[in-house]
């Protein structure tokens, strides 16, 4: 229940985040002063006014207006502040009234963020005064209270501020009036640009890709004053630098928070990642009777990347469930028909005459009808998902995009690690043309196993030599993608190729010089690489467990490490096998990942010893294979690896870019 | 406008303008009844569970309850188990969302049930209700109060079933006993 205060009355405040709303009928200036426990103002920096509208925990309008909303966060006030006085004054000059007696009694209210009134006060009895202390928020025994003051000053702001003990009062009053006069001159100003902090923050990576994605923030808050480019003491306002590596971006994104009237910014001034996300693309209203047009990024998330990630997973789940509905309906239709046919056959009466045939036909008709209905529902959902896929795919950032996506041709080395990586496509046999990107979170939680064994989907046991080559190509494509989506120098790739059989496939990696070291050949090379990586895992683990992460040797490469192992187990002794198992188990948590290119049959000699190794790796295939299940209903999904289109130079271009960036970085 | 339903009453889920509803929410809310006598402060928590059983031609095909929160087809979703009730003080404590347009074509009835998992009878439950809300605009379509609970631990609340091209809601309100929906199956079958 809102308390209507009379002059001198106080009221407890239960919230610390508040709004103070002012309604005066005529334009007035709203300001606030901060006082210490004796009510003293320490200097001009303790006054929030149109010239300096923001102080920690306090924000006032930059202009004179008939209505104001002052944002107050008492929790963010410095410890020294014990009193916040809210001042109103009539702007000097212009043709406005010069005394409060000539305007309607100003009304001030303290409200919560949701607009519920806590306390309100109508300042009556003013006459010749042109400035008034409306309210006072003050600390009393650790809790904040509000008091209705209503003390007017005929001498205007200068007199008011002098009375509050500010030595520079006349000077400050002058500068306030000047700021207000300036504000009146600029009637409409552009919304302020977002204050970018570092371009490594997530939220800058939010190009608005929808048809009318941006610009939805210009809301007319009641009594709002036109926002000005802030002259706030915080944050450099440089140009918004679009992050590299993301799809073509329209104009810099608009500020997410509506800046009209109530620009409450609770974020840390230097920590921009806490800022609200850029607005999600709005879905245009659907024409009646039709499903809404899909829009890329139509999901929750703090950045476009996260939204797209969530959208892809949403599509994945929707497809899984839609298919489950279809399959269960068809299964049901089948089982019902079977039952009905059984009944018809077992009924002796039906054997005479045409009854049996009639029953059979009826059962078949029922079956066909239900299956048709189910198919219609499935087709409707597939059409919707296909339409969504058509807008989502082109909008994907490189890490999520297929190699055939044009975004790879505009590739630039990213400044931050993406959320996830596309390892391939998933589809179901009923809808082979609808492909869902298979995104796994980064950093990788499990190693990868590119299976070069011949268990392909169609059962045709392809030439094992060919399979090995395909598996290696797949491994190179995945490794190149990992290299490309990590910032320069933050991902290192090692290769173990004991017999040198992968030389042909490894050309893109070797020639562009993106490998950490030339592929290790021979048993000695295997031992050397494995020992170094094992030591690294040991060291980092020790440091992490001992809580002494900063005491790692200075020469230690902090990048994530990927080890591509070809030709396992040839050239591996028992010790190397043990090391490999150790890396698979312990590596991912300290940034060392395995990528085995192997046929399990080759290692059959080790027996069950290696089963845990294979189980701990995520199996991927060079050819389409239905070995992956979704987490919701457990369909078998056909996986197809993300491969570079034949003849495309994109891989080489991207890797060259990576190599160049790395030299610059060093 | 809310229809306060009585046992056995059926309402069509057709909107006034003739278009069918697309999404409905079955909400369940309750509070523990105050205990008489000494040690009233020793409040006893009551765990009611809402479940939805999906039937195709009188065979149960899928069920949505606290251990299987989303039907396989994704059309029926349980918002999660509430073990104590009374959080919303009149709001829904557990809710099951049904996307009627996405319900697989062979599902023709969805039965909503309430069980007392902790075993208290409805005598110890206060202000228990079940309501059906149009999820698209938040309008309450029907409310059914678990009045006169009696010595029962379960109730078959209502069913939505296909009729023509749309769906119809029928209030059942049959008291029975059981800890989870499995125990209720024999009691549900006569209502199909």
UniProtKB/TrEMBL annotation, chain B:
Residues 1-179 form the TerD domain. Pfam families: TerD. InterPro entries: Stress/Tellurium_Resist (IPR051324), TerD (IPR003325). This is TerD family protein.
């Amino acid at each position: 229940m809102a308390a209507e205060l009379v002059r001198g009355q106080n009221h407890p405040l239960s919230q610390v985040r508040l709004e103070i709303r002012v309604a005066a009928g005529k334009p007035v200036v709203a300001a606030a002063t901060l006082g210490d426990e004796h009510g003293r103002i320490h200097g001009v920096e303790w006054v929030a006014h149109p010239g300096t509208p923001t102080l920690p925990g306090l924000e006032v309008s930059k202009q004179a207006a008939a209505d104001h909303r002052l944002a107050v966060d008492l929790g963010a006030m410095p410890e020294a502040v014990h009193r916040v006085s809210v001042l109103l004054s009539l702007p000097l000059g212009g043709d406005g009234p010069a005394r409060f007696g000539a305007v309607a009694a100003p009304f001030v209210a303290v409200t919560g963020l949701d607009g519920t009134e806590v306390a309100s006060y109508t300042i009556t009895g003013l006459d010749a005064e042109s400035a008034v202390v409306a309210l006072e928020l003050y600390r009393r025994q650790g809790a904040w209270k509000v008091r209705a003051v209503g003390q007017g000053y005929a001498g205007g702001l200068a007199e008011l501020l002098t009375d509050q003990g500010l030595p520079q009062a006349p000077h400050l009053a002058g500068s306030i009036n000047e700021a207000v006069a300036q504000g009146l001159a600029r009637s409409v100003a552009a919304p302020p640009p977002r204050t970018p902090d570092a371009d490594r923050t997530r939220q800058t990576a939010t190009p608005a890709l929808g048809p009318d994605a941006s610009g939805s923030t210009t809301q007319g808050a009641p009594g709002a004053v036109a926002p000005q480019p802030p002259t706030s003491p915080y944050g450099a306002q440089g140009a918004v630098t679009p992050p590299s590596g993301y799809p073509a971006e329209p104009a810099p994104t608009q500020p997410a928070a509506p800046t009209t009237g109530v620009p409450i910014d609770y974020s840390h001034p230097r920590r921009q990642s806490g800022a609200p996300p850029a607005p999600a693309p709005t879905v245009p209203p659907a024409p009646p009777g039709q499903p809404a047009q899909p829009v890329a990024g139509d999901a929750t998330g703090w950045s476009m990347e996260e939204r797209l990630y969530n959208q892809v997973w949403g599509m994945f789940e929707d497809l899984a469930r839609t298919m489950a509905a279809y399959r269960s309906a068809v299964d049901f239709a089948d089982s019902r028909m079977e039952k009905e046919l059984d009944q018809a056959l077992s009924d002796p009466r039906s054997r005479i005459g045409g009854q049996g045939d009639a029953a059979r036909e009826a059962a078949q008709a029922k079956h066909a009808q239900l299956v048709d209905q189910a198919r219609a529902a499935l087709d409707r959902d597939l059409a919707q998902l296909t339409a969504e896929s058509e807008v989502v795919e082109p909008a994907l950032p490189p890490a999520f995009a297929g190699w055939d996506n044009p975004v790879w041709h505009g590739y630039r080395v990213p400044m931050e690690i993406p959320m996830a990586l596309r390892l391939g496509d998933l589809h179901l046999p009923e809808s082979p043309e609808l492909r869902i990107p298979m995104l796994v979170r980064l950093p990788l939680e499990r190693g990868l196993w590119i299976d070069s064994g011949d268990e392909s989907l169609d059962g045709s046991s392809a030439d094992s030599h060919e399979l090995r080559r395909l598996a290696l190509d797949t491994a190179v494509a995945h490794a190149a993608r990992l290299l490309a989506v990590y910032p320069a120098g933050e991902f290192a790739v090692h290769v173990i190729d004991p017999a040198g059989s992968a030389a042909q496939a490894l050309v893109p990696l070797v020639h562009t010089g993106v490998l950490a070291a030339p592929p290790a050949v021979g048993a000695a090379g295997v031992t050397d690489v494995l020992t170094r990586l094992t030591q690294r895992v040991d060291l980092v683990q020790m440091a992490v467990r001992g809580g002494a992460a900063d005491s790692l040797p200075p020469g230690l490469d902090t990048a994530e490490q990927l080890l591509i192992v070809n030709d396992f187990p040839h050239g591996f002794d028992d010790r190397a096998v043990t090391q490999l198992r150790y890396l698979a188990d312990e590596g991912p948590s300290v940034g060392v990942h395995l990528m085995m290119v192997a046929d399990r049959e080759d290692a059959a000699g080790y027996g069950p010893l290696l089963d845990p190794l294979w189980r701990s790796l995520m199996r991927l295939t060079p050819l389409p294979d239905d070995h992956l299940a979704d987490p919701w209903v457990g369909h078998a999904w056909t996986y197809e690896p993300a491969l570079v289109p034949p003849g495309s130079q994109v891989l080489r271009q991207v890797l060259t870019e990576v190599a160049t960036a790395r030299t610059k970085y060093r | 406008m809310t229809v306060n339903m009585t046992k056995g009453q059926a309402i069509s889920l057709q909107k006034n303008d003739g278009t069918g509803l697309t999404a409905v929410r079955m909400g369940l809310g309750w509070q523990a009844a105050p205990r008489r006598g000494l040690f009233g402060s020793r409040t006893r928590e009551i765990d009611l569970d809402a479940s939805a059983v999906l039937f195709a031609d009188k065979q149960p095909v899928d069920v949505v309850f606290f251990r299987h929160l989303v039907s396989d087809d994704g059309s029926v979703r349980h918002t999660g188990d509430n073990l104590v009730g009374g959080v919303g003080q009149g709001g829904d404590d557990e809710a099951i969302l049904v996307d009627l347009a996405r319900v697989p074509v062979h599902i023709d009835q969805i039965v909503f049930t309430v069980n007392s998992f902790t075993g208290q009878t409805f005598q110890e439950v206060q202000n228990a209700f079940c309501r059906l809300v149009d999820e698209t605009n938040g309008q309450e379509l029907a409310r059914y109060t678990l009045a006169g609970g009696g010595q029962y631990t379960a109730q078959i609340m209502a069913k939505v079933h296909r009729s023509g091209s749309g769906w119809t809601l029928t209030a059942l309100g049959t008291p029975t006993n059981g800890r989870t929906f499995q125990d209720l199956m024999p009691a549900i079958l006569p209502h199909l």
